[in-house]
Every structure is written in C-alpha cells, then in structure tokens.
Fold this sequence. Notes:
This protein has an 8-stranded mixed sheet, sandwiched between helices. By secondary structure, the protein is an alpha/beta fold. α5 links the parallel β5 and β6.
Amino acid sequence: xxxxxxxxxxxxxxxxxxxxxxxxxxxxxxxxxxxxxxxxxxxxxxxxxxxxxxxxxxxxxxxxxxxxxxxxxxxxxxxxxxxxxxxxxxxxxxxxxxxxxxxxxxxxxxxxxxxxxxxxxxxxxxxxxxxxxxxxxxxxxxxxxxxxxxxxxxxxxxxxxxxxxxxxxxxxxxxxxxxxxxxxxxxxxxxxxxxxxxxxxxxxxxxxxxxxxxxxxxxxxxxxxxxxxxxxxxxxxxxxxxxxxxxxxxxxxxxxxxxxxxxxxxxxxxxxxxxxxxxxxxxxxxxxxxxxxxxxxx
Length: 298
C-alpha cells in the first residue's frame, strides 16, 4: 500500500524503512532535510512540506504521524485537514493523550476523515523486531491499514482495541507499567551493588533471563548496558519522563484505582532530578534539632 510518513525521528525513520523493505510505497516528510534524505536513500519519495506530501499521495490517502504529542500533533492535523478529502485517514502513532485523540477524531469525522490513534511500542529496536501497536478508531479505517500494520508488527503484534482514544489509553497504561518494571529492576540491582558480595550485574541479568520468573526484554537490555559499563559510570542519575506515567496516575485517581507502584516509580524519577534537595536538608535539620544528630555542612 501507499502512505505518507510525517516525522522521521528515532522511530519514524525506522518504521519507514521497515515499510519499504516490505514493498510498500512511502512518501516521507520531516522538519529537517537530513532524515528525509535518509528515507529517500532507502526508496521513499521525499516531501519538503505537508502540502507536498498530500499532493504526492493517491486517493484515498493515509497520512501517518510520528511526531511529539500535544501542539505539534494539533498543528499537523490542522494543516492536513483542509488538504485531505472524505475517505482519507490520519494515523497518530505517537504518545498522544487519549483525550486529545478523541477530540481530534470527533473534529475530523465532521470532514469525513478518519482518525486512528495508534499506541506504538518497540523503540529503536522495532526496525528488526517489529512494533507492538494498539489501535483505536473506526474498524473500516483500521482494516485499510492492515497491510502496513502486518509489515510493521511481528506476528499477532497489532490489535484494534476499541473506539477513538482506546489505542492511546492502552499505550498510556503500557508505559505506566513499564515505569514500575524499570524501577523494580533498578532498586534490585542497587541492593546487589551495595551488598557484601562482588556480583557482576551483567552475569546476573543474563542468568535471570534463562527461565526465571523475572526474565524480560528489559532485563536483556539491562544486561547489554551492564556489559558495556558494569558500574554505569558514564551516566548521570537523572531520569526524564515523557508524560505517560503522569497521565496514568491522573486516570488512576479519576477512576479510584490504587496505583502505589506506578506512583512511586514516577516520583522516583522526579527525585532523580534533584541535586541537594531542600526536602533532604529539612530532614537533616529536623534530626539535628530533636536528637542532636550529626549533619554534614555545605
């Protein structure tokens, strides 16, 4: 099939290449010319602008967005909508908020344009292993995407999970769970590092992936990281978050669902960004005041 890919970052470019390898036709566009040239070198047709991309596609068109959530998606949809026609499809494959996806789907439906929210997991490894995709939206529109989805995903790696918003809601919860899993591994390996035993973390990570109940792809990635640098000395203890963990907790609060592990995992990321936090200085001061405990002066 033919589709337009907007956004050729870490995932968008690899998805484009995977589609091309499977024999699909891709018109590729990005704000920067370099990734467009890279896509063209693999066989994509380059487009300098969204208007040029739409003009290069045959009707009915499919335009796939792999761009940051929020205003960038709104801007792209607003620019695309007047140029598209009834029967065309816009796919948002980024990590958008599910409520935004519902809003965009409703607005585009009035123009006869289908909007599909596609939660996409696979990261930089998806080029070789494929992408897991959770799709929300109209069944007929998603059915049209099936040839591309089959090319992008491993076997059983994509699913129509519900109406507009359902795809991004599922991906939001997926990422919230990911926060908790990563935090558990991090805390476990820190205890091992502080123990009286001289463990090799890469060896243990490899061992645990041989049939243990904690084996996972994340643990395989931990093994890779520990093999390169057992003490991870090249990294600063600063962990960013991209928003999905926060959204997951907002939904948990609204739904009255206890999510202690996910909340703790998110707050641990906030903690990682503090250097000489005021909170910890307050704790030290209180211990000194009530018990005369020793403190370290700056």
